[in-house]
Specification:
globular, mainly beta, seven-stranded antiparallel β-sheet, 78% strand
């Protein structure tokens, strides 16, 4: 995932084997929130990311897979 920040707004692209998809969100203080829309066999699905930014890292991150549960994620600035 590649993100750009302008003020509190985040925009960018997530890249996987199927290509690129848009990512949008906010970073308010140390609180990060992102939404990535992906196509699934059951239609469009939102991946809702939340986490805490500390320096060049994102920790305590959770990604919610629409109505299909959630899981952890981490990130690091490159």
């Amino acid at each position: 995932m590649k993100l750009a920040q302008k003020g509190e707004q985040l925009t960018g692209k997530a890249v996987d084997a199927n290509g690129e998809v848009d990512v949008n969100g906010t970073c308010k203080g140390d609180a990060l929130a992102l939404v990535q829309k992906v196509n699934s066999p059951m239609g469009e699905l939102n991946l809702d990311f939340s986490g805490t930014v500390a320096g060049d890292s994102i920790s305590g991150g959770t990604v919610k897979f629409g109505d299909f549960g959630s899981g952890p994620f981490t990130g690091k600035k490159q």
